[in-house]
């Protein structure tokens, strides 16, 4: 039994797309107009192989050891029945193009992308930003039709406005009538006898525009804001695509953002941590008092509710988390040393016994490990 997989040069588990691709490649190589009479028989073998392997039922029969294209090989078997002649036309004549009528000159323009840098305050509260963008706009001279003022498009004399032409091609099947886009008008059905000098018949020109974009609270690096119909105007003065504004948030000198929460480190003397104190902290909302309880420990977190970044597409804000860093003095004068010794004596800590406890990494260590994948 003929091995159709070998004829097409594909594996037995090849996908339908791989089979179709292999068939089209071989059909072009073996077409009689290319390979001459010698390739005609090989072409028929390739066509027969594709007929079987492109049909799920016939392929299943073939895989079970039955050649469905052979006489008596199965119901409906035989070359030419159910065969995809459209595939032949697509292979030879570039099928798949719209040939039912002229192509409209006005087509939708492409989407555009610009990037802007914002600071943490703008991401927290939202902002209005002015952008200067260079995009295609409708030509003001011809209003998008591509013609010199006072002139108009003209019906193509080659295709008579149909946008396509018919031609007769020879193949091993005989003479075949095909339809293809008109080369004279490029499928539009009309020609521009006198193109606009400003846009060269394109109906659009490049121009710099100033736009205002509302940046909502809660945006982050990678967030995209869509401005509908603010992108590139299409050829022939067609409708504009969309403009996407991509956000890049700049790092802050003090606050670190994690989602909608903010984190910062507050350094306090050990005496203030032990005795407790009220400190004033500069936040994005202005000065805020922070109450450190007596006995505040290093690494302790004081949370200020609602002072973080605004939630995107929702109400409310994240929190501001203040990490306390207790500063231990590295140098002491004689009076300070004596006072600390007296305190140690009062607390019975002249000779403290060491106590080992399990290590608990700080919040930034945990965040760093998580982000690095450790």
What can you see in these coordinates?
This protein is α+β, with helices and mostly antiparallel strands and 374 residues long. Among the domains are: 90 residues, Helix Hairpins (Orthogonal Bundle), CATH 1.10.287.110; 117 residues, Urease metallochaperone UreE, N-terminal domain (HSP40/DNAj peptide-binding domain, Sandwich). The protein is built from ten helices and 15 strands. The strands form six sheets. It has a four-stranded mixed beta sheet. Strand 4 and strand 5 form a beta hairpin. Helix 2 runs antiparallel to helix 4 and helix 2 packs across helix 6. About 6% of the residues have low confidence.
Number of strands: 15
Number of helices, where a helix is a run of at least 4 consecutive DSSP H or I residues: 10
CATH architecture of the domain at 256-372: Sandwich
Q: Please write the string of helix (H) and strand (E) elements.
A: HHHHHHEHEEEEEEEEEEHEEEEHH
Q: Could you tell me the CATH topology label of the domain at 256-372.
A: HSP40/DNAj peptide-binding domain
Structural class designation: alpha+beta
Name of the CATH homologous superfamily of the domain at 256-372: Urease metallochaperone UreE, N-terminal domain
Task: Please tell me the overall pLDDT.
Answer: 85
Low-confidence stretches: 74-87, 91-99
Radius of gyration: 38 Å
Largest sheet: 4 strands, mixed
């Amino acid at each position: 039994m003929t091995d159709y997989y070998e004829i097409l040069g594909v594996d037995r588990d090849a996908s339908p797309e791989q089979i179709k691709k292999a068939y089209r490649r071989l059909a072009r190589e073996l077409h009689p107009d290319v390979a001459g009479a010698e390739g005609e028989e090989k072409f028929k073998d390739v066509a027969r192989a594709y007929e079987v392997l492109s049909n799920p039922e016939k392929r299943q029969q073939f895989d079970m050891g039955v050649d469905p294209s052979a006489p008596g090989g199965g119901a409906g078997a035989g070359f030419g029945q159910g065969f995809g002649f459209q595939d032949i036309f697509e292979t030879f004549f570039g099928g798949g193009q719209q040939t039912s009528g002229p192509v409209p000159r006005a087509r939708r323009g492409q989407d555009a992308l610009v990037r802007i840098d914002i600071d943490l305050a703008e991401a927290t509260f939202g902002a209005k930003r002015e952008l200067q963008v260079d995009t295609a706009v409708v030509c003001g001279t011809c209003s998008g039709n591509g013609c010199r003022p006072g002139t108009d498009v003209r019906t193509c004399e080659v295709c008579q406005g149909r946008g396509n032409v018919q031609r007769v091609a020879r193949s091993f099947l005989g003479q075949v009538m095909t339809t293809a886009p008109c080369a004279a008008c490029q499928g539009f059905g009309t020609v521009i006898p006198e193109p606009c000098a400003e846009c060269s018949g394109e109906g659009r020109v490049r121009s710099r525009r100033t736009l205002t974009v509302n940046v909502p609270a809660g945006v982050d690096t990678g967030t995209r804001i869509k401005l509908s119909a603010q992108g590139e105007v299409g050829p022939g003065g067609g409708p504009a695509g969309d403009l996407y504004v991509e956000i890049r948030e700049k790092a802050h000198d003090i606050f670190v953002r994690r989602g909608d929460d903010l984190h910062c480190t507050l350094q306090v003397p050990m005496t203030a941590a032990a005795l407790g104190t009220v400190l004033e902290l500069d936040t994005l909302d202005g000065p805020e008092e922070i109450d450190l309880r007596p006995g505040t420990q290093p690494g302790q977190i004081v949370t200020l509710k609602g002072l973080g970044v605004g939630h995107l597409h929702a109400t409310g804000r994240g929190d501001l988390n203040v990490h306390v860093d207790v500063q231990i003095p590295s140098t002491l004068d004689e009076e300070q040393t004596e006072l600390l010794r007296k305190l140690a004596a009062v607390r019975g800590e002249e000779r403290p016994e060491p106590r080992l406890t399990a290590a608990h990494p700080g919040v930034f260590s945990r965040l760093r490990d998580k982000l690095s994948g450790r």
